[in-house]
Amino acid sequence: MTALLIRVLGREQTDRLRRVLLWAALAAVLQGVAYALLVPLLTRLLGNDPADAWPWVGALAMATAVYGAVAFAATVRGNRFSAELGRHLHRRIGDHVVALPLGWFGGERTGALGQLAGQGVVQVMNAAANLLRPLCNAFVTPAVVVLAMFAFDWRLALAMLVAAPVAAGAYRWSGRLIGRVDRQSHAASVETADRLVEFARHQPALRAFGRTAEDHELLDAALREQRAKARAAVRIGVPGIAGFALAVQLCFTCVLILGTVLAVDGSVGAGELIAVLVLAVRFVEPMGAAAELGGSLRIARGTLERLEGVLASDPLPQPAIEGPLPETYGVELDGVSFGYDDERMVLDGFDLCVPAGHTVALVGPSGSGKTTVTRLIARFWDVGAGTVRVGGTDVRDLTTEQLMSRLAMVFQDVYLFEGSIEDNIRAGREDATDEEVRAAGRLARVDEIAERLPDGWAARVGEGGTALSGGERQRISIARALLKQSPVVLLDEATSALDAENEAAVQQALAALTADRTVLVVAHRLDTIRGADLIAFLDGGRVVEQGTHEELLALGGRYQEFWREREGARGWRLAARS
Amino acid sequence: MTGAALADTREGTPDTLPAPETPAKPPGLGELITPIRGRLTAAILAQAAAAVCSMIPFIAVAELARALLAPGGPDEGRAWAAAWTAVGALVARLVLYAAAGILTHHADADFQLDLRRRLARHLGRVPLGWFTDNSSGEVKKAAADDISTLHHLVAHTALEVTAALVAPLTALVYLLAVDWRLALVALLPLVIGAYFLKQAMSGGEEVTARFFGSMGAVNSAVVELVHGISVIKAYGRTSRAHRAYDDAADSFSVFFRDWIMSTTRASTSAALALSGPAALLLATATGTLFVTQGWADAVDLVPFVLLGPAITGSVMGLAQSGHAVQGGLQSARQIHALLAVPPLPEATEPTAPGEDGGRVELEGLSFSYDGVTEVLRDIDLTLRPGTVTALVGASGSGKSTLARLVPRFWDTTAGTVRIGGTDVRDIAPADLYRQVSFVFQDPHLLRTTVRDNIRLGRPDADDTAVERAAHAAHIHERITALPRGYDSVIGEDAVLSGGESQRLSVARALLADAPVLVLDEATSFADPESEAAVQQALSALAAGRTLLVIAHRLATVRDADHIAVLDGGRIAEQGTHDELLTLDGRYARMWALQKKGGA
């Protein structure tokens, strides 16, 4: 656990944690001392002269006062640490995340990361503020009590300790059982949640094909499985919890029985025994609390482990010294090999040259690596072998800022920031004048969108651009790229059809963006393909054919086949009588 | 314990669920747990008995003290009786406690299953219009997260509260019987503790709202940083976005510290007043005073030392349970809100669709999602069997909405939809779905075997029929190339491209074999490379049916028997391709634009 903490929190925060823990432990020790004082106090009180108890009452009062002061200090320190820890973790996550390669951010990861930085951090903060002291009380206080017990009567202290290893063993056993139960229940509830989301998301199809909830066996099976797992959790978990409770009770029972034996035969004073039994109760109670803390502890631990997973991912290496910016704008891929995992290479010995000012179209079957090529140029990932060069410089020798200053990317998944249309265009170049922003907007035909909306250029786009249609989002992202005026344009043409007007507007906007630039386009539209200076046909991670449209058609190979099929598809008409 | 226990991070997302219509009283948990009420009551009784048993060992030790300190020397018999009573009570407590826990957990497992089924059944009947982009998140929240929150309430909190109330009450009754004056003194920490707790929680709601506000700011900054990272990096905004995130994190930290520190004094004071050492100090100090003054017997003090901390100790736990109850009630409200979404009414005496089951008539039809803005107005359209009718128009012109009214994804605001002459509202859902099939732009594949995906509409179809449909949809060969063929599971060992998924969904519609078919932008290709194969599949599907098709690419539907051009929710023009071109209106303009665009 300590190693995990150091990895996630860093050494400095771990040291702070140690100091906070020390205060909490001190409070717990003082609590134990206060309890231990009960034995002399009660022995005197139950003895012949109860007034002898007064000094011990004074001592207890002192101990309680000091305990109170220390406990207060420990709480304040815990709280301060908790707030500081939140800030520290947030920053640590932020600093690490911005240094990660873009390829790291995909699908589920982004959602999980958002959850982790939001709820996850608060969970850890809560644990720091609310868990540390009870935890110390649960372990340190009983230890102090047992030590004190030896001072009063070693036989009863031993009796208490006899059961302690049993309790410790039961605690571990029960923790393991509950861990197993947690994992099973978690898996079942993840499955249920997935099936529920599936049920909701595919509701149109499920309904169109006559599947109601009753007939949707996939969902019902998941729900039944979750119940089965919940029942199994009881079956597996209860022996663990009951076993630990039994072991803790055993401690008390041992002292009680042995104490009664000793008291009945007179070898222990009645007053002393009663005092020791009162102490035994104080020994047993915090241990019971330990079982309840276990759950919160496991949650905090799970969060820390997930945080560790994020912090352990490798950041994108940056050059040690910032080199000069490339002055030419060609793009080359030289013997590039790359795979998302070790099993399958997406690109394998890939060579491609996009001369400055030229347009190269990538075509080929799905899965042939077209999009990967554009993402490697933007250094979403680093290549496995070979080199990617922009303006003759290896992209790994450029800082992220340098590389990005050379590239404009228009990809299919458009992200717009929460803010106005104007803000989103200006993101392309912060220091652009209003006139430049409007000019870029007009070129990308965003002015028509602004006219339609009540707030015009100041209209909010909604988080992620949800207030606009797909075509409109594309136009804004193109305006943004236009404003940036980068010499190299990477373009992933949209596959989904837009309505006629949006389609025409997007085409115009793209024409403005790509004029006189170095362009690499993953092309789907036949006009784009035909109009390219060079077409590269990809298959199996390599360029299998390249040339102009006419050259490739004349070649009579894969491209020709592809072109014929696409031409045929374009002429396809749907009719009832085919 | 500090206010941070409030930081239950399951923040209420903005309530986008429609409010239940005129609720007689705020729906609570009571109605939801009716089916398991009996078992819950039994569990609570068992827990109450366990709580009483948990106090008996303390009482027994006190009795042991009396026996040992008896004036005539130790009373051995009474001493052993007390000791064994303590042991017996401990065992009884454990058994009762386990029984209570087992009962609530089993009841809760049934409760969760029942409630989730109920929610799913209900969701299967609400208008599809309810399912928007974020509704799957809402469904997950209600049916997974909220019900899990209730788990805590049903399986744990009810028992915790029972124990936290019954145990101290038992102790108090016993102590009052022993010495009422000392018993009253023992209650003192409770009064002090309650005072401080109240102080610590003052302004709770407002502060909680601010807490969630501040946390929301961090969450938004995270979302923006993470989802926008490619844009952030591409436009060199890294430092700026990073700074915004850092600022949000810092102000959250400052807020958290101020908040937690503002309540630290009061909450720590409460915790200390209710702590073990404080209770013991009070009991022994007053006890010593009483004994030295001769107001009480020393042996009567023993119960107070034993039970005093038990009275005060449970209060902090109760305060925590209070948060759990609040969270649970909030979740119960969310679930009720979901159950209160009005379902589509079902015909009481369903009629079968008429003879001519392939004929679809839309008459005087208007539709509005929200009752304010009309999405469709005065639509009259007839789809004849064996013909293709195409809907074209700009995004937002109402094409998809119109198409979805045919299989009654919603009910119309005015006018009727008839299939085979029968109003769709009078047709039993099962019969209706046998008449109308739908192919969506999203193939809607489920995470199950390819076979079960194809036979979604006809679960009893045999393998031959499934394979025949797959053949016709040009996907059979691809399926047989999968690791487990038709038994491969979508998303696991069957990873299909967009075009392949589309063909699979066409196979599904082919197998369902309904006379009326709606193609909602199914001709727009996720995967241009397999366009031709998808087209062949669609052609196979179209043959001999009543077809309603939505198309962006006009060329696709130029051979349609009838083309309706939608504009602002009305049919602006209709006719064949040639007729519409001659008209030289909207359609002609769209056609020209697309010709020029070359799409």
TrEMBL record, chain A:
- What residues does the ABC transporter domain cover? 331-565
From the record, what ranges are coiled-coil? Answer: none
- Output one GO MF annotation: ATP binding
List the membrane topology term(s).
Multi-pass membrane protein
Q: PANTHER family from the entry?
A: ATP-BINDING CASSETTE SUB-FAMILY B, ATP-BINDING CASSETTE SUB-FAMILY B MEMBER 6
Keyword Magnesium listed: no
From the Swiss-Prot or TrEMBL record, state where the protein is found. Answer: Cell membrane
Provide the alphabetized UniProt keywords: ATP-binding, Membrane, Nucleotide-binding, Transmembrane, Transmembrane helix
Record-linked InterPro entries: AAA+_ATPase, ABC1_TM_dom, ABC1_TM_sf, ABC_transporter-like_ATP-bd, ABC_transporter-like_CS, P-loop_NTPase, Type_1_exporter
Give the matching Pfam families: ABC_membrane, ABC_tran
Show the stretches that span the lipid bilayer: 20-42, 54-76, 131-150, 156-174, 236-261
Domain ABC transmembrane type-1, first and last residues per copy: 20-297
Q: What is this protein called?
A: ABC transporter ATP-binding protein
- Which species does this protein come from? Streptomyces lanatus
From TrEMBL, chain B:
Recorded hits in Gene3D superfamilies, A to Z, give: ABC transporter type 1, transmembrane domain, P-loop containing nucleotide triphosphate hydrolases
Q: Which InterPro entries does the annotation name? A: AAA+_ATPase, ABC1_TM_dom, ABC1_TM_sf, ABC_transporter-like_ATP-bd, ABC_transporter-like_CS, P-loop_NTPase, Type_1_exporter
Could you tell me which SUPFAM superfamilies the record lists for this protein?
ABC transporter transmembrane region, P-loop containing nucleoside triphosphate hydrolases
Domain (ABC transporter): residue spans on this chain:
360-593
ABC transmembrane type-1 domain location is 42-327
Residue ranges of the TM segments: 40-61, 81-103, 153-174, 180-197, 270-295
**Cellular localisation:** Cell membrane
> Which PANTHER family does the entry link to?
ATP-BINDING CASSETTE SUB-FAMILY B, ATP-BINDING CASSETTE SUB-FAMILY B MEMBER 6
The protein in question is named: ABC transporter ATP-binding protein
Gene source species: Streptomyces lanatus
